[in-house]
């Protein structure tokens, strides 16, 4: 697995997809270091260490390129733009090593009044993407705020249902609440952090239950927002 991951890093490097290449180099080297620790054959250990040394040199070049290992890319989603479903936005950062995800969003709750749409469904769609892979997520941490008034019971019921459903796929959902949370960000334990101005709720309401874009988020018009993508080897935990 480590060799295949590094091969993928080389392919991405040649394609000038440096940020993805950096992550693959890091993951591949980590996997190979585990192999070295478990190998008793001294000759094999020496060969492994030589290759790891070469790959570490390549990784260092990327680290320098991304200013001491930190990388920043900004994506501007225009008003009514389409083609920004969750898979399209997040997939390149969800490598196989991702096993833990942190979501901070104050508005994972039901929308009131006449709206048929709910931010809880956005979160559910995001969880579905994680379950499909290629990552092997085992734990999702959600930090949000309580809904107001009578909406709180619906919010809790919805979150508990998502939690129970994820459990049947071997994924644990940890839910915490904060009355002071304002920032919206998503973090993966491979070092990627995504900040979206509108959080997960950047899609417009569908025109109807049988309109194009109701089921496929890639075809759903978006609100104008900005997506900032960062990479760092150290991700904070809640």
TrEMBL record:
GO biological process, one term: midbody abscission
Gene field: Mitd1
A Pfam family the protein falls into: MIT
Protein name stated in the entry: MITD1 protein
All residue ranges annotated as the MIT domain in the record: 1-62
Organism: Galbula dea
Cellular-component GO terms for this entry: midbody
Signal peptide region: none
InterPro entries hit by this protein: MIT_dom (IPR007330), MIT_dom_sf (IPR036181), MIT_domain_contain_protein1 (IPR052817), MITD1_C (IPR032341), MITD1_C_sf (IPR038113), MITD1_N (IPR045331)
PANTHER family: MIT DOMAIN-CONTAINING PROTEIN 1
SMART domains: MIT (SM00745)
């Amino acid at each position: 697995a480590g060799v295949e991951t590094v091969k993928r890093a080389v392919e991405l490097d040649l394609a000038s997809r440096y940020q993805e290449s950096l992550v693959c180099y890091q993951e591949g080297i980590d996997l190979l270091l585990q192999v070295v620790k478990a190998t008793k054959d001294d000759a094999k250990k020496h060969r492994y260490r030589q290759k790891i040394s070469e790959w570490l040199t390549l990784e260092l070049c990327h680290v320098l390129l991304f200013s001491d290992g930190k990388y920043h890319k900004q994506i501007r989603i225009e008003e009514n733009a389409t083609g920004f479903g969750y898979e399209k936005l997040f997939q390149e950062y969800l490598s196989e090593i991702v096993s833990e995800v942190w979501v901070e969003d104050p508005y994972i709750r039901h929308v009131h009044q006449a709206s048929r749409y709910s931010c809880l469904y956005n979160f559910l769609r995001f969880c579905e993407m994680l379950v499909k892979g290629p990552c092997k997520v085992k734990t999702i941490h959600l930090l949000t705020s309580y809904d107001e008034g009578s909406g709180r019971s619906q919010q809790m019921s919805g979150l508990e249902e998502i939690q129970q459903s994820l459990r049947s796929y071997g994924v644990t959902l940890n839910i915490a609440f904060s009355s002071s949370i304002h920032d919206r960000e998503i973090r993966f334990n491979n070092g990627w952090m995504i900040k979206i101005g509108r959080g997960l709720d950047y899609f417009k309401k569908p025109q109807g239950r049988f309109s194009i874009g109701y089921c496929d988020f890639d075809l759903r018009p978006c609100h104008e927002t900005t997506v900032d993508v960062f990479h760092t080897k150290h991700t904070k935990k809640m």
